[in-house]
Amino acid sequence: MLEDELVNVLSTDPGIKHLFVVENRNSSRFIQKLKSENLRPFVFSSDRLYPLVSESNRHSPNIFMRIFSKIPVFRQTCDLFNRNKQQELTVVVNLLTKDLHEYPDKLQSEVYLNAREMSQMSDGILIFYGKCGYSSEKVQNDLQRLNCPVYFLRDNERNLVDDCISVALGGNDAYTKTKELGKGVFYATPMWLSDMNKENFRSTPSYKEYARYLRNPDYAFLIKINNQIYKDNTYHENASEFAKEFDMEIINTNGTMDIAINSYMETKTGISESDSC
Description:
By secondary structure, the protein is of the alpha/beta class.
């Protein structure tokens, strides 16, 4: 659900040397969005991609640089190496299916299993989920025991964000304020509405369950989160149709990319510092 945010941070980072995307049934739309921003990712299935990245890492001269860093005469060379390395970032993106949100336990299990697999060839992992992806204490503990540091999306108060809507609004406090309208609300982002309006989804039991709740008079408002970064040309039309179908009043509010950007940059800094000589 955070494709647009991820595309934005990747397309504005000049330090990415190699961008890889795990090829699966969730990746095609994301890849097209990257290409629309003039990014050309390498796309492989995980069984091919992970060994490729691992082999590349094994040829890294880090271990030698750490040894040389203990010798004063080589410290300046080591510092230069680290600065250059910061500008040669390799990013691997693995998207999980949105359908997992319907099954919280399965979602958290999949987040952990994929993170564990990626940790074998990573210097650090940024979990691009809110707490919905790792709310159980067991999953949080398991993530912290992986072979590399794990980073999370946080708001300006350093709180772990609740979910993708909290990310889009700019934090948990902003999220809480929109819940004080007295009646039920549905939060709209381009990703949510594009999936809700898919013809094949509308015929599923999941959509019928959504519709049953949303037709309840207690759901009165559609919070439409606007952001100039969103590229979906059908967003405004989809929001209007959705509000009309479920008899909701549209409330427009401005979104932000700050949490995605700041968390991504914090992850880069953390990885750089942990890898320094």
